[in-house]
Amino acid sequence: MKNIIIFGAPGSGKGTYSDEIVKRYNMGHISTGDVLRGEIKNGTELGKVAKGYIDQGQLIPDDLMIDILAKVYDENEPGRGVIFDGFPRTIAQAEALKKMLAERGHEMGIMIELVVDEETLMTRLLRRAEIEGRADDNEETIKKRFEVYHQKTEPLAQWFEKEGIRHTFTWKGSKEQMLDEIFAGIEQLN
Ligand code: ATP
Ligand code: MG
Description:
The chain is 58% helix and 13% strand. It has helices at 14-25, 32-41, 45-54, 62-74, 91-103, 118-132, 139-153, 156-163, 175-189, and strands spanning 4-8, 28-31, 82-85, 110-115, 166-170.
């Protein structure tokens, strides 16, 4: 199984579709957001640093994030494909990921881009705030995260395009339909 990079704005469903893909193809799953929230919950030094950025809707600095990613990646069962959820988020992270994988004789695999209109994203994130109570799911911080996404992360789509691995899936109102299209895409590409 190839590696998969799942890419999209906050609330686009990266975590939700990752869970479904992981179940279906028995892959590893690295969600950098979940890793950071785990560190915060455990009160580690890294968690304290991360919380300062997350609560402001800002990205954790690249150097730190790249170190964390390599460490978590090396804990994955060898030979099993991994889904990267929430990483890379900047060009520097993408370059680092490509290099890190190449050093291990691995490849990025497939990039899956989720495109969802901003009104739907905001509605989803505000609903999630009521259910999960994530500190960064409030209207002000969400707007900041959208801004950071447009500025730093969205340009990466072009970077993946140039790598020849970008595959775009656009939300048309149904999770089932989206999932069917994503599975069909993965099977065609593997
Ligand atoms: P969703 O999970 O709904 O897609 P999201 O993409 O905003 O929303 P996470 O991926 O969980 O949520 O990330 C939450 C926060 O963790 C980010 O806003 C950022 O502060 C930090 N973070 C996660 N991944 C990275 C990364 N690769 N680089 C820098 N910061 C990150
Ligand atoms: Mg997530």
